[in-house]
Write a structure and sequence with these properties.
269 residues; six-stranded mixed sheet; three-stranded mixed sheet; 9 strands
């Protein structure tokens, strides 16, 4: 995909690693581009079952590389700012937001494995995943306030669904650094473990063994219904279920259970 992001795949699971370890995987223009293009490419892969997203080296992602942007001068800096704020026709997110949103929009589960630091934009990318494994000594912060800014890479949209509003406000107003155990207590982390990547890969392969149609449908349903009124959510739940019943992969799930064998699922259409 790019030297900024490494991707390997085994058993339907994509191992996606931000690869700028000398800068703690900080976000420069090349990293933004690589994350977006990687996510878009994976979204087209019908054999994909799950994704594990992590960072090489000592950290998940230290956030925006201010130095790389400040070193741009004049017209080039203006062009870069314009590029990060640009939107594709009909798309909800600008280019900066896409670095997080692309993982929210990916049709398969995305599991973030967080170690070292996840600051600012790095935390927002982790929060865009469906599930997060975090090391006990990992440091997380909504750090934009340090620079007189607000989280603007999908963070305001994910924080309000993961945390009580008062907690989201406190962390956003202060930029306070929290560690893995507190992150789990608050709701930012799903699990705390000494080896986040190994744990994330194990869960990803477990998910990969399930019906890909049902897993994709479940992610879409849960993401959509959290924003819908109850009646609309229930109707969507019904429609989703009716779309699965009797399909080849649903029938295979039943037969494999009855026959006590491993299922052989087809790739989604």
């Amino acid at each position: 995909m790019s030297e900024r992001v490494k991707v390997s795949k085994e058993g339907g699971v994509a191992d996606v690693r931000m690869n700028r370890p000398d800068k703690l995987n900080a976000l420069d223009s090349a990293m933004f581009e690589a994350l977006i293009e990687t996510g878009k490419a994976l979204a087209q892969d019908r054999t994909l079952r799950a994704v594990v997203l992590s960072g090489e080296g000592r950290a998940f992602c230290a956030g925006l590389d201010f130095g790389s942007f400040m070193n741009m001068a004049g017209r080039r800096e203006a062009e870069q700012e314009s590029s990060l704020l640009s939107r594709e026709p009909g798309g909800p997110a600008n280019r900066a937001q896409q670095a997080g949103y692309v993982w929210m929009a990916l049709p398969v589960p995305v599991i973030a494995a967080v170690h070292g630091v996840a600051f600012g934009g790095g935390l927002q990318i982790a929060l865009a995943a469906d599930i997060r494994f975090v090391a006990p000594d990992a440091q997380l912060s909504v750090m934009e306030i340090k620079w007189g800014l607000i989280p603007d890479m999908t963070g305001t949209q994910t924080l309000r669904h993961l945390l009580r509003l008062d907690v989201a406000k406190e962390l956003t107003f202060t930029g306070r650094v929290i560690y893995g155990t507190e992150a789990a207590d608050l709701g930012l982390a799903t699990h705390v473990t000494e080896n986040p990547r190994d744990a994330a890969m194990a869960l990803a392969h477990e998910i990969a063994a399930k019906s890909p149609d049902a897993v994709r449908a479940a992610k879409q349903l849960l993401n959509r219904t959290r924003l819908l009124p109850l009646e609309e959510g229930l109707r969507l739940e019904e429609a989703t279920q009716m779309g699965l019943i009797g399909t080849p992969n649903q029938v295979e799930a039943v037969q494999a259970n009855v026959q006590k064998r491993a299922p052989q699922f087809r790739d989604p259409a």
